[in-house]
Every structure is written in structure tokens, then in C-alpha cells.
Amino acid sequence: MSFNNLDQLYRQVIMDHYKNPRNKGALEGDHLTVDMNNPTCGDRIQLQLQVEDGIVQDAKFDGEGCSISMSSASMMTQAIKGKSVEEAVKMSHVFSDIMQGKEISEEMEEELGDIQALQGVSKFPARIKCATLSWKAMEKGVDEKE
């Protein structure tokens, strides 16, 4: 697949998550809530996590912002459900590495799935905060829970 075709595919994945966000809404019952914003561009997210016995049972988000921040939140909530807190935090660190333009293992590429579509953001330093906002919220939430 040529670079242009791959780039187009990645854009389609990002726009799909933006227009049809997964896990947008509010959780019922016991959960932790983290509110964060990116004052640089106005992105705002409220992340809700239901963590039981060290496992992310459910994750939802609400907020407003650019296609990158909202699609990243959609992808992240999908990816961390069913993962241990340690696995979710590790994913966040790998995502941060991607945003810094670092190479990752093939195993992690497979685990990230759609999230890889955001790797092109690393070429635009001003947009990295947009992509990492939900991930930072997740890390803050699980840190506060412990």
C-alpha cells in the first residue's frame, strides 16, 4: 500500500471515530471521573472509568474539541476496556512514544489497532496535546484511584 493510500486510510479512521465516537456518554454507578482541558486549543474532556480489582471494566468520555482529541478519546476508551490498569498505563506510554515519533514493536502495533491512525500527528507538535489529552486523563484517574 502506498504512503498516500495509507495516509488516506488513517484519515478515514480518525474521521470515523470523530463522527461516530465509541463510548461517548456517562457511566452509571460507581466510577471515577477526571476532567481535563487543553487551553491551547480549547479541547475539553471528561473521562469516566469503572475500575474493579485492577481491571478497567468500562470507560466513557464526554467533551468537545477537534477531531484529533475526540477520535483519540474514542479509540483510547475502546482499547483500555478489559485491560488491567498496568496494561492501560503501558499503552498510554507507548502512545506517548508514538507521538514523539519513536518506533514501537510489532506486538504493540497490533495491540494498538486503530490508534496507529494517529501516528501522523507526531509531525505536528501543536496537535500532540490534542491527541494525548484523553490518555493523560486516564493516567491521572488511575493514579488518583491508587
From TrEMBL:
Q: Name one GO biological process term.
A: iron-sulfur cluster assembly
Query: What InterPro entries does its record include?
Result: NIF_FeS_clus_asmbl_NifU_N
**SUPFAM superfamilies assigned:** SufE/NifU
Q: Which GO terms describe its molecular function?
A: iron ion binding; iron-sulfur cluster binding
Q: Which domain of life is it from?
A: Bacteria
**One Pfam family of this protein, by short name?**
NifU_N
Q: Which residues form the NIF system FeS cluster assembly NifU N-terminal domain?
A: 10-130
Q: Which family does it belong to?
A: Belongs to the NifU family.
Entry protein name: Nitrogen fixation protein NifU
From the broadest rank down, the organism's phylogenetic lineage runs: Bacteria, Bacillati, Bacillota, Bacilli, Bacillales
